[in-house]
Amino acid sequence: MRVSRNCPWNRCSFCPVYKSEKFSVRSAANIKKDIDLLCKHAGAIRQSLEGSNGIEPEAIRRAFCGASMI
What is the DSSP-derived secondary structure letter of residue 2? Predict the structure, then answer.
């Protein structure tokens, strides 16, 4: 999950990325909206991963939605 924009250091001579961009941190409210959206769609994520060799659905539920959701 993205909590910042661009690079906080932005001084590496080998890296051409973000040279004209200013670093900023996303607001807590903005990050919470992303978490809420993930919780809203966690069921669909779980269904798509069941039976695959991907991330365990239980791990997604615990990480994003707490033990009592889904």
Answer: -
Q: Tokens standing for 52?
A: 């695959």
Judge if pTM exceeds 0.70: no
Contact partners, residue 61, CB within 8 Å, separation at least 6 = 42, 46, 67, 69, 70
Nearest to 61, CA basis, from 39, 34, 35: 39
Domain ranges of the chain: 4-65
Q: Residues for the chain: how many in total?
A: 70
Residues 6+ apart with CB under 8 A from 2: 26, 34
pLDDT tens digits, one per residue of 14-50: 999 988 899 999 999 999 998 888 888 877 777 766 6
